[in-house]
């Protein structure tokens, strides 16, 4: 991550230091590496994709279409969040993945905070996401930042935050 794309350093709950930064297509390789080792595959709503080629295309699509945020521990990418903005409707879809070993240590919060700040800077009015009803960790994260459930969409539920 270049210094210019760095958003800051955070300490996790164990006192270990991580770098947070924006990323772009130049980071495709290291982001793909993170998802190649991500367990379980299809952790949430079929993502990250299990098939290698589909996974690479998914990563590339996010980097091309979205605002992307990385958490790094040394050379290793350990967390990723993306905003997929729609400047017509002034909103963005949000998604986030933290490597299993690094969960519940505050990285998801750091990435979410950075993404919401960016969404505000972009002038967006709302950020939305879908989450499975049994994904209590993710729901806890989203609630902490003020996301609320909107209409029940069946198994995959939609949450949003107005900015
Ligand atoms: C969801 C995910 C991104 C959260 O990241 P994280 O780094 O674990 O999040 P944090 O440590 O910052 O925790 C944020 C909040 O989530 C909640 N939380 C964390 N761990 C939890 C757990 N084990 N059970 C329930 N809630 C939990 C808490 O409210 C916590 O806030 P607090 O630390 O102030 O109490 C991560 O678990 C993940 O990648 N899961 C797999 C992929 C996924 O489900 N993505 C979401 C798709 S909708």
Number of structural domains: 1
What general form does the structure show?
globular
Query: Which class of secondary structure composition applies to the elements?
Result: alpha+beta
Bound molecules: coenzyme A
User: What proportion of the residues is helical, as a percent range?
Assistant: 25-40%
CATH topology (level 3) name: Aminopeptidase
Question: Kindly state the mean pLDDT as a whole number?
Answer: 91
Number of helices: 4
The description of the largest β-sheet is: 8 strands, mixed
How much beta, percentage-wise?
Answer: 25-35%
Question: What does it look like?
Answer:
This protein is of the alpha+beta class and 163 residues long. It has one domain (3-162): Aminopeptidase, CATH 3.40.630.30. The protein is 29% helix and 34% strand. The chain is built from 4 helices and 8 strands. It has an 8-stranded mixed β-sheet, with helices on both faces.
Summarize the model shown.
By secondary structure, the protein is of the alpha+beta class. 29% of the residues lie in helices and 34% in strands. The protein has a single domain (3-162), classed as 3-Layer(aba) Sandwich (Aminopeptidase), CATH 3.40.630.30.
Which properties best describe this structure?
4 helices; alpha+beta; eight-stranded mixed beta sheet; 8 strands; 29% helix; binds coenzyme A; globular; Aminopeptidase; 163 residues
């Amino acid at each position: 991550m270049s210094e210019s794309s760095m958003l800051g350093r955070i300490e996790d709950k164990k006192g270990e230091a991580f770098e947070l930064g924006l990323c772009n297509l130049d980071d495709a390789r290291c982001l793909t590496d993170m998802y190649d080792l991500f367990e379980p595959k299809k952790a949430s709503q079929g993502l990250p994709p299990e098939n290698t080629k589909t996974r690479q295309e998914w990563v590339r699509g996010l980097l091309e279409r979205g605002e992307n945020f990385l958490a790094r521990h040394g050379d290793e990418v350990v967390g990723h969040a993306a905003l997929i903005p729609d400047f017509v409707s002034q909103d963005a879809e949000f998604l986030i993945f933290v490597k299993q070993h690094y969960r519940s240590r505050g990285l998801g919060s750091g990435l979410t905070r950075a993404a919401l700040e960016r969404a505000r800077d972009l002038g967006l009015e709302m950020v939305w996401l879908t989450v499975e009803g049994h994904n209590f960790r993710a729901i806890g994260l989203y609630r902490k930042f003020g996301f609320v459930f909107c209409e029940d969409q069946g198994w995959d539920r939609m949450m949003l935050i107005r900015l």
